[in-house]
Specification:
The chain has one domain (6-127): 2,3-Dihydroxybiphenyl 1,2-Dioxygenase, domain 1 (Roll), CATH 3.10.180.10. The chain is built from two helices and eight strands, in the order βαββββαβββ. It has an eight-stranded mixed beta sheet, with helices on one face. The protein is 16% helix and 50% strand. The protein has helices at 20-30, 82-91; strands spanning 6-17, 34-39, 44-49, 52-58, 70-78, 96-105, 108-116, 122-127.
């Protein structure tokens, strides 16, 4: 089957924070990112990083030295048919986590799906908003 997607950008990275206030200060005051959006219900703070975003979420439980600190990263993709993309991924023996659904990212809302890479890292594949 022909590959039904083209990766065009890194949309966002989600960082698990031991101390979210300290991380927010670092990314905004020190690095100059600007706060764009909050979802208090899940503790999410989204920061604008040029064309991309850095999302801060509370680490619960806090990551250890051997633990995972990056929750996931998101690749912006061009794909016309997300159901076809999911079929293709499964044919390639990629573990798909759930169904495509609308999610917010650096370029606004778009359909996305989560997959696992060969090392168990979570990768979100998100359609570029038109």
């Amino acid at each position: 089957m022909e590959r039904p997607l083209r990766v065009v950008e890194l949309d966002h990275v989600v960082v698990r924070c031991r101390n979210q206030a300290r991380s927010l200060d670092f990314y905004t005051r020190v690095l100059g990112l600007t706060e764009e959006r909050r979802l208090d219900a899940i503790g999410l703070i989204q920061l604008r990083a040029g064309e991309s975003m850095v999302d801060l979420v509370p680490a619960d439980p806090p990551p250890t030295d051997a633990g995972r600190n990056v929750d996931h990263f998101c690749l912006g993709i061009e794909a016309n048919d997300m159901d076809r993309l999911v079929r293709y991924l499964r044919e390639q023996s990629v573990e798909v986590l759930g169904d495509p659904m609308p999610r917010y990212g650096a370029r606004g809302m778009g359909l996305s799906v989560y997959v696992l890479d060969p090392d168990g890292n979570i990768v979100e594949l998100k359609q570029k908003a038109s």
